[in-house]
């Protein structure tokens, strides 16, 4: 579990799969993630039964979304991936930087107080 001033990331528990599925079904999320998986699949992902692990993200004590990660540790193909989804009421607009590209510093904002900066 990772707990910050505002955000808490934790393993899923009873009832979390239904809430996460409702968030995944929101139009602002499903347009990127597609049709939500059945509850049984989400529950299995929260248990880490496959190569994917789904964690619950809380903001202000409310389930706000999830963080899904996958890790491949075969030496020749070693890599990891992470995906984040947030319910519509917790989302923010992406910003377009001076280079014309869209940027979102949400993960960095959430971890800001946890980072150690070299001066």
Question: What is the topological layout?
Answer:
Elements (H helix, E strand, L loop, with lengths): L1 E2 L3 E5 L4 H10 L1 H7 L5 H9 L4 E8 L2 E11 L6 E8 L8 E2 L5 E2 L2 H6 L8
Antiparallel strand pairs: 1-2, 2-3, 3-4, 4-5, 6-7
The beta-strand count equals 7
Morphology: globular
Largest sheet: 5 strands, antiparallel
Percentage of β-strand residues: 25-35%
What is the H/E order? EEHHHEEEEEH
Q: Helix fraction?
A: 25-40%
The level-1 CATH class: Alpha Beta
Total domains: 1
Given the structure, what is the number of helices? 4
pLDDT averaged over residues: 82
CATH superfamily: Gcn5-related N-acetyltransferase (GNAT)
User: What integer value in Å does the Rg equal?
Assistant: 16 Å
Structural class: alpha+beta
What is the rounded distance between the termini?
A: 29 Å
Main sheet strand line-up: 1-2-3-4-5
Uncertain ranges: none
CATH architecture: 3-Layer(aba) Sandwich
Could you please describe the fold and organization of this structure?
The chain is α+β, with helices and mostly antiparallel strands and 119 residues long. It has a single domain (2-114), classed as Aminopeptidase (3-Layer(aba) Sandwich), CATH 3.40.630. Helix content is 27%, strand content 32%. The strands form two sheets. A five-stranded antiparallel sheet has the order 1-2-3-4-5. A two-stranded antiparallel ribbon has the order 6-7. The two termini are 29 Å apart.
């Amino acid at each position: 579990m990772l707990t910050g001033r505002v955000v808490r990331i934790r393993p899923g528990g009873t009832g979390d799969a239904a809430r996460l599925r409702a968030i995944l079904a929101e139009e602002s999320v499903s347009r990127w993630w597609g049709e939500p998986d059945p509850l049984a699949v989400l529950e299995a992902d929260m248990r880490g039964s496959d190569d994917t692990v789904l964690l619950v993200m809380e903001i202000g004590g409310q389930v706000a979304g999830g963080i899904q990660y996958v890790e491949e540790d075969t030496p020749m193909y070693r890599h990891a991936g992470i995906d984040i989804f947030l319910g519509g009421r917790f989302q923010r607009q992406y910003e377009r930087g001076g280079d014309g590209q869209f940027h979102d510093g949400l993960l960095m904002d959430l971890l800001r107080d946890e980072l150690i900066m070299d001066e």
